[in-house]
Design goal:
Elements (H helix, E strand, L loop, with lengths): L1 H14 L6 H5 L2 H15 L6 H6 L1 H19 L3 H24 L3 H21 L2 H4 L16 H21 L3 H21 L2 H17 L3 H18 L2 H11 L5 H19 L10 H6 L20 H37 L7 H21 L10 H31 L1
Helix pairs in contact: 1-3, 1-7, 3-6, 5-6, 5-16, 6-18, 7-9, 7-10, 9-10, 9-11, 9-17, 10-12, 11-12, 11-17, 14-16, 16-17, 17-18
């Protein structure tokens, strides 16, 4: 029951069905269900007990992150801005905790993958112009953090590896066909939003999978098939936007990002320990750190357009250290498990399933790391959900090895 509550909570937060069915908002389901699941998870008798979770490296990093945000609430100019971010992040850390506590086997991870895949497919169905009119940039109606096409497509790029896992792990042909069709819709949705950051994230994901794959020729053929599909589907305006990555000096949006990134460095230089305060980047850029590139007329109050520069400007050096430690640490741990599984594949039961799981989780992390360089998604739920899945996968794999060792000892006795 708690697991179903978790799946429903994720679905409600990503799809925001209250925007389409108002009675859902009136019933406060988005608040009530996560609250019930959180309380239930605290007392849930799980193999991943509270002490085990708290001791994990990710948990310590998130507690440090909360500490930085609490300091920001105290020292920031506008307490309300920072406190809002603190509450938001605290809620996402609860998600991280709940995932680890409840998701204790492969099938439950697959359930979360399925929810992510079909939540994004449903958003495409509810906003069909994303795919049906790719020449026009479409926004997701009624969605708080996925409303912008760039934000939505980044979330989609994180979901693509999850869909790939479902394709490879499916035993039934019908299921494979369904997930392959879902994958095509996800890829076309990225193209339809014309998001350069998400497109780079998608390319980075496939490049990583090819590099890590053991069948290079097959990998090239599959990537070639994806590229042919994109070429057949994408309108000319998509390629025009992609071309501005190379000629960024001539494109206003790209130059705006660079100005914002330079401003983040100036913020961190002026406030290296605390930054300018969580939630303060746009207002500080428009006041105390007004870029010299802009005059005072028609000045845009920009966000950082980068998770790295956002946290650098708002939380200073401790913030960017936390963020990089989280990304690099999880990438290295997942990579270590992949190497170990491949080295010991003959002696590990279900080695291929765990190999694919860690590979696809790392692929989602790669997509987030690349796409997050161009979008301010620091305070979005993505990395917290991914971190929870990383720890769940780690705990269940170690438990799997322990059980194998116990069985081996019993046989010897």
């Amino acid at each position: 029951m708690l697991y179903l509550g978790l799946l429903l909570s994720l679905f409600l937060d990503y799809v925001r069905p209250a925007s389409y069915v108002p009675i859902i908002g009136l019933l406060k389901i988005n608040t009530i269900i996560p609250l019930i699941v959180t309380i239930g998870a605290i007392f849930y008798n799980s193999a991943n007990d509270n002490t085990k979770i708290i001791k994990h490296h990710n948990s310590k990093l998130f507690l440090f992150f909360l500490f930085l945000l609490a300091i920001s609430v105290i020292v920031a100019d506008v307490t309300e801005f920072s406190f809002k971010i603190f509450k938001l992040v605290f809620g996402f850390i609860l998600w991280y905790y709940i995932i680890i506590k409840i998701v204790t086997d492969i099938d439950k991870i697959k359930g979360i993958f399925i929810v992510f895949v079909f939540s994004h497919i449903l958003l495409v169905i509810l906003n069909p112009d994303v795919v049906l009119d790719p020449a026009t940039r479409t926004y997701i109606s009624g969605n708080a953090f996925l409303g912008d096409g760039n934000d939505f497509s980044l979330s989609v790029s994180l979901t693509v590896p999850m869909c790939l896992f479902l394709i490879m792990d499916s035993k039934k042909t019908l299921h494979k066909v369904i997930y392959i069709l879902a994958l095509l819709v996800l890829i076309f949705a990225i193209v339809g939003t014309q998001s350069r950051g998400a497109s780079l994230a998608l390319m980075g994901t496939f490049a990583y999978l090819w590099w890590m794959g053991r069948q290079k020729i097959l990998g090239i053929l599959l990537i070639g098939g994806v590229l042919i599909s994109i070429l057949a589907f994408a309108p000319p305006v998509y390629f025009e936007r992609m071309n501005t990555i190379r000629n960024y000096e001539s494109e206003g949006s790209a130059m705006g990002r660079i100005v914002a990134w330079k401003t983040a460095i100036r913020m961190a230089t002026a406030h290296p320990i605390t930054g300018v305060g969580a939630g303060h980047f746009p207002v500080k850029l428009g006041t105390d750190f007004r870029p010299p590139e802009f005059g005072y007329e028609n000045f845009p109050w920009l966000t950082a357009h980068s998770s790295y520069f956002l946290i650098l400007g708002e939380l200073g050096l401790p913030g960017i250290i936390f963020f990089l430690a989280l990304l690099i640490g999880n990438y290295r741990r997942n990579s270590k498990f992949i190497r170990f599984i491949r080295k010991k594949s003959d002696s590990i039961e279900d080695s291929e399933v765990y190999n694919k799981l860690f590979l696809m989780l790392n692929s989602s992390l790669v997509a987030f790391a690349i796409g997050g360089a161009f979008l301010s998604v620091t305070y979005y739920p993505h990395i917290f959900v991914l971190a929870g899945l990383f720890v769940s996968a780690e705990f269940m794999f170690k438990s799997h090895l322990d059980k194998m060792s116990e069985n081996e000892n019993h046989k010897k006795d």
